[in-house]
Amino acid sequence: MTQNYRFTNALRYTFEQMSEMHNASFSGYFVPIEMTPEMTADFWRLNGIDALRSVVMHDEDGAFVGMARMGTRGKRGWCGGFGIVPEFRGRGASTLLAEQMVKVAREGGLETLQLEVLAQNVRAYKTYQRVGFTSTRRLFGFELATTALPASESVLPVEQVAVETLLPWLAGNTRVCWSCEPATLLASACEAFRLSDTSGRPNALIVQRGHGRVSILAALVQDELTEAELVALLRKAANLENNIYLYNAPEESAMLVRCQALGFTETYSQYEMLLTLS
């Protein structure tokens, strides 16, 4: 028997309800993602999640089935979380939710819709392909213990600067993922570190710290940057944190290559996917 579903937006739900729906729909996921109401509110604020365009799915008896959060910036859309609760998986619900997400984005006047999906999540990847998404590139996470950085006796002039001072340079840098765009960085509790020089072109890191590690969200590295200089930047950014984490680095990123050379190891990879709506 064909299962009937109904779709609504997320306007009438509290952050407590949305965190419960998130946790239910991501239960058993490859990477555990438990969210509190406070975390949910912060995630929505930082990533421009639009309650009107986010899709909530129930069955005909009112049971929660899944949810697709959608962020918007201008005419661009981003799926910032797509999940189906375990008891409805394998029944075709994910394809129906994806189709509804695309429909809402298109009817809402968006021109593109993008998302990221873990490389090992083959079923989700195929679902997105079925509704028209194509893979554009891979994003990687890499990590290194701070103590594993090469030793250096020299003290190089690394200074902490305001994140805003680096935005003109970021605009011309490698295209970053949604959650590392300037709009997110400016709204986050980020720190920026720059290696002082006279060339006029900065070498800098924008980072966020917590849970015993510092996460590199954006990096500016020039070809002339030496290993010793990069290590000085990393040490200054890490400070007392135990680990340094390179977050969602695009496969074409110069920083990714530099980190691999220093011994960073891969923790995950995911595909960035895009659908042109108009």
Task: Describe the structure in your own words.
This protein is of the alpha+beta class. The protein has 2 domains: 5-132, Gcn5-related N-acetyltransferase (GNAT) (Aminopeptidase), CATH 3.40.630; 141-271, Gcn5-related N-acetyltransferase (GNAT) (Aminopeptidase), CATH 3.40.630.30. Helix content is 28%, strand content 33%. The chain contains 8 helices and 12 strands. Strands 1-2-3-4-5-12-6-11-10-9-8-7 form a 12-stranded mixed β-sheet, with helices on both faces. Strand 9 (203-210) and strand 10 (213-220) form a beta hairpin. The longest helix is centred in the middle third of the chain and has 15 residues, at 93-107. It starts with a strand and ends with a strand.
Which structural traits does this protein have?
Aminopeptidase, 28% helix, 12-stranded mixed sheet, 2 domains, 278 residues, 12 strands, alpha+beta
CATH homologous superfamily heading of the largest domain: Gcn5-related N-acetyltransferase (GNAT)
Overall 3D form? elongated
| Largest sheet properties | 12 strands, mixed
The CATH topology of the largest domain, please?
A: Aminopeptidase
Instruction: Assign the structural class, choosing from mainly alpha, mainly beta, alpha/beta, alpha+beta, or little secondary structure.
Output: alpha+beta
How many structural units, i.e. domains?
2
How much is the average pLDDT? 93
**Helix proportion of residues, in percent?**
25-40%
Question: How are helices and strands ordered from N to C?
Answer: EHHEEEHEHEEHHEEEHEHE
* Number of H/I helices: 8
Give a count of the beta strands, DSSP E runs of length 2 or more.
Answer: 12
